[in-house]
Amino acid sequence: MIKVQTKGSAAEITLFPVDASQGIIQDLTLKESDTFFSLFQVEFNVPVAYRIDRAGSSVAVYFSHVDPYLEEIETVANGIQWYRKKETLAGYTLRVSYLEILLKVAEIEISPELALGGIGYKEKVSAMAKRNTAYAGINGCYFDTVTNFPIGILIKDGKLLSEPYYYPRPYFVQTSDGKYAILNLDQEIQLSLGASLFLVKGVNKFSKNGDVIIYTEEFSQQIPRQGDREYVVVENNRVISKEYAIRAPRNGYVVMLSPIGVSKYVKIGDSAEIRTIVSGYPYEIQFAIEGGPQILEGGKLISSVDTEKVRYGERLLTARTPRTVVAIAPNKLVFIVIDGYQSSSAGLTIEELASFLISKGFTDAMCLDGGSSSTMVVKSRVVNNPPGGEPEIPVGLLVKPK
Question: Is the pTM of this model over 0.90?
């Protein structure tokens, strides 16, 4: 007698009366056995259905995909599932990788991750994931291809590492109480040094303008030394020096000020604080990573493509390219990577991407950096197909055990 039971991507086959010690069945794992029955398990990469055919004294079990478009699926951890599917849209074939996180079930920490070496360096997402023992990861924000500096607001563990882009762009955040959201609100970076308040124009950037620039310990380059600037060094939220420093101290930062003379209002020992003010959003931000464009808000399309051209440039919106997406549904967070630049997966324009995401029932969604940067990693394994092989990038977004 034979009994078959499928459980996700595995199948259990019970045979009785069979003594498994009398022989070996190839590719089956023996889970349990006695003199009366044997229980075997066979693993597949996708959910399967089965049928049993009997012919005389012979019995055959045939397994088949539940979804013929599903290429591979894996339960990464409790509440985290990754799968890759073939999809079609407007006559084009797509190869799409999904990482679904059930927010009420998964015990995780999501965080931006800088390349090894700090701001100004690049690293593969798979290396970032391996270094952090992460469940999974995707590529992060846009970046300057000359300096490798991140573009747009970047906050990690509550610490500001990069300032907002000068045009308003969306950013994916987690608040200190664990809520996730996509914001498209104005921001202002304020720096208080004693009784003085400054508006910060740049964080970990080179600047030739008369701005207030902050350099943190993550900045990998030598801090610029300019004769028409003044410098203030902060450590553990206190001013410790008013001299130039080549690097920021641990647990501190260097402030570059202009014009000459403004630092006379700052004294050694003064308190120091950096504040990120988000208009109309009172919650403390644990992490933030900027990208865009935003596609969905409250289950509806946001502003037109013409408006977004000002913020991103026409080619980024109208070309069929690989896309990396953060999408939110009730009690669920989904990271999506759509392959492109290939005959097996053409990629999508922004308008096509909007149609695709609406069809999936998401409430909010935005892009991160795409094109040749688009990468998804599960347990250090690249699971999509980047057109030029896995790229090196300055910032990833990792899903780690809590």
Answer: no
